[in-house]
Amino acid sequence: MTTYLLRKVVVAASVVVAVSFAAFVGFGLSLDPSYPLYAQPRAQAIVRAHYHLQDPILSRYARWLVDLSRDGFGRTVSTDVGGVPPTLRSLGEPIGSQLLHATEITAVLLAVALVFVAVGSVAVGVFAAQRRRFHADVGVRTLAYLGASVPTFLLGDLLVRAIAPKYTGKYVGSHFVISSTNGWFLLGPPTGGVVDWLRHLFLPAMTLSLGLIGLYSRYLRSAMAVELSRPYVTVARAKGLTERRVLLRHALRNSLVPVTALMTLELGGIVGASIAADGVFHTGGLASEFLGALGHADPFELTAIVVMSAVVVCGFTLAGDLLVGLLDPRRATKTG
Fold first, then answer.
1. 88 pLDDT exceeds 50?
2. Which of 23, 34, 250, 293 has its CA 20 to 30 A from that of 286?
């Protein structure tokens, strides 16, 4: 098991490094943050010299790696030189603090959504597997197809209107709040406390999870249908085990292995779906940071956001691999 996890960690670290290189080169070659100063050659020259934009891309990447290990993600690109030499002051704002907060929001959002997905998929999948070829099975599968086919942004808007049908949006301080007969759910970035985080992240987590529940409950239903037809299930029933124990202790555990492995492969798509949820609910996650950095063509901040997204995806993938290893130790032994 230890060898299995070490191999997964090495692979995850290699993926993060490869993503950082691809993102830095891609953004560095396609974006020029000094372009807004094209009418001010002296100011443009100061910005380009300060951020080494005239250096070869590989040299810039090497310098970025050194700065990353020493000062974190550095500072955002600023074109407000104001006639002050950059040697006398630092340009831009620190990237690390706001990026870590956005990463925390995205990670918690994904964690809550995956909990909803796990509970909902197991409940719906087991229910449908027990009633194969009955009306209940057909109805559950129809709802699952419907949930999986609705776009995330539309599902989020419908969910807000269903829970707060008479809502009106207004800003309270820097946060966008839903005012309605059901005012418990809020839009905007969470500020502090478990209750406040749940109030802000419940709706986007439900938006992310509903479509995934429809998708993975179908996979689980099919996997359980296969497991329930296997000889060991017949033997377990012949020994007098209750149907509940046969379903949950034997068939469900073996069915979860391929479904969990499939989910870990699709975590990148789930993070991508969080972009739409972030746009609907204004949670202040990595998607909001990415759109803001893209607006002022900051290659350093964009690279940092992509790297942190890769870290989040790889972290959840490692957790999924660990869960697969615990569900099926033989798989971990063979892989290790």
1. no
2. 34
